[in-house]
Amino acid sequence: MADLLEYKCPCCAGKVEFDPNSQQMKCPFCESEFTIEALQEANGVQEQAEDQLNWETPTSDWGDGETDGMKVYTCQSCGGQIIADETTGASACPYCDNPIVMTGQFAGDLRPDFVIPFKFDKEAAKKALLQHFEGKKFVPKVFKDDHHIDEIKGVYVPVWLFDAEAQGQFRYHAEKVKRWSDDRFNYKEVSHYMVKRAGRIAFEQVPVDGSTKMDDTLMESIEPFDFKGAVPFQTPYLSGYLADKYDVTAEDSIDRANNRIKQSVADEIRKTVIGYDSVVTEDSGIQLENAKAKYALYPVWLLNISWNNEKFTFAMNGQTGRFVGNLPLDKSAATKAFCITAVIASIIVFILLMIFNNGQ
Question: What does the pLDDT read at residue 3?
């Protein structure tokens, strides 16, 4: 049996002491009293609540003949490895636009479980770029007229998808504060509570990008992808497109998936603790069941543009058509607009002050 002097108060986390008068354990700070059994149970929650986050990762291998005719191209600048069939020309890296060279026959790693086929072609991506320019007042006109599209490439980006059922247990220290006053003093009464919550949440297709070459900001900006459009992987879907070879394994992606799941569970269960003035998480434990990772390829159009000795990269979701990318800023136009806005705001403030003063 553990030393009782080591136990903490479940209400305020102060160290409890044995009270000879009540023959119970008593907190000298909040004056809460507990039986030894209740104190052991409460502290047992803190000792027993542990995370159990074990995953089953993909193990699918390529079948005989599936990789025939598929080549590996390696970027001489960023080191990225791109997979393409023999009929697909590949001369520039879709990420950094530097030259890539064929380094040999693709031998395979893990075989993708699913693929979301492209629903938009290259012309749609180019049209989306022009639409992206519309309404952008502070983009230099010369950029809109004289930009040069270096490359438009359809790339399948590797993505790890995590499914799991998460069971979470949480213990909180909560407080209710009551204030009042009389003619002599102001009073404050703080009531302490130990709050326990537990819940289960199912997660499906929690995505983690499997490529370090794909800019995470661009990838996240064109989300979400609709997994309902995914189909079992077959090599013909790669024909005419490039496929990025994953350089982040499923095992190395687990921490990111766990963090997203743990934060989501904590947020949802925390929402159920209401009616208190303050709530602090004291202990938590999350266990995963039926935790499996899948390997999928997501379709992305990448557009590289050269202008004024700078490179601009744009991305379009090849399934939904969502388009993103940073544009150059016309500083003179932006400054002029700011000055005009400031002048108008000053005039409005002046008029309001005149009205206010005349009304006094």
Answer: 39
| Burial group, residue 154, by CB count within 10 angstroms (0-12, 13-18, 19+) | buried
d(CA 152, CA 81): 18
pLDDT greater than 70 at residue 241: yes
Q: Which residues of 67-84 are buried (b: 16+ CB within 10 A; e: fewer)?
A: beebbbbbbeeeebbbbb
pLDDT in tens, 72-97: 888 878 878 888 877 665 667 888 77
Over the stretch 302-342, which tens digit does the pLDDT of each residue have?
Answer: 988 877 777 888 899 999 999 988 765 445 544 454 455 55
Reference 198, options 231, 156, 176, 170; nearest CA is 170
Q: Parallel, antiparallel, or unpaired: how do β-strands 81-85 and 231-232 relate?
A: unpaired
Domain ranges of the chain: 1-48, 70-159+210-252+300-330, 331-360
Q: What is the pLDDT of residue 333?
A: 45
Q: How many residues does the chain have?
A: 360
**The residue type at 92:** A
Q: Residue 246 is encoded by which pair of tokens? A: 């994953």
- Tens of pLDDT, residue by residue over 294-303, are 999 999 999 8
Burial 248-279 (b: 16+ CB within 10 A, else e): eebeebbebbbeebbeebeeebeeebeebeeb
